[in-house]
Design brief:
The chain is of the alpha+beta class. It is built from three helices and four strands, in the order E-H-E-E-H-H-E. A four-stranded antiparallel β-sheet has the order 2-3-1-4.
């Protein structure tokens, strides 16, 4: 199993319509084959400056690779993520 996580901050103002639209449109990622347990999370710790997180799981490396290469993921990254995300940190985990 691989758990793919990313924490990020948007370029949009907190609570703005643009922020809401980005989060709504990001739900397309949940429909990509192989994605399990997709979550959108609000970051609440004062220990970092990120605002949101996405978390999802994949059964194996093949499912994760399929997600990364899927046209819906590629399009989201190119048309939404790159233009609208100010900063992010991606971490992928596998059980020990």
């Amino acid at each position: 199993m691989i758990r793919h996580t990313v924490v990020f901050t948007l370029k949009h103002a907190k609570g703005s319509a643009e922020e809401g639209t980005f989060l709504r449109d990001a739900k397309v990622l949940a429909s990509i084959p192989g994605v399990e347990n997709f979550e959108q999370l609000r970051q609440v710790s004062p220990k970092n400056d990120y605002s949101f997180g996405f978390s999802m799981e994949f059964a194996d490396q093949a499912a994760y690779t399929g997600y990364n290469d899927h046209p819906d993921h590629v399009a989201f990254v190119q048309t939404r993520w790159i233009p609208e995300v100010a900063a992010f940190l991606e971490i992928d985990y596998a059980p020990i």
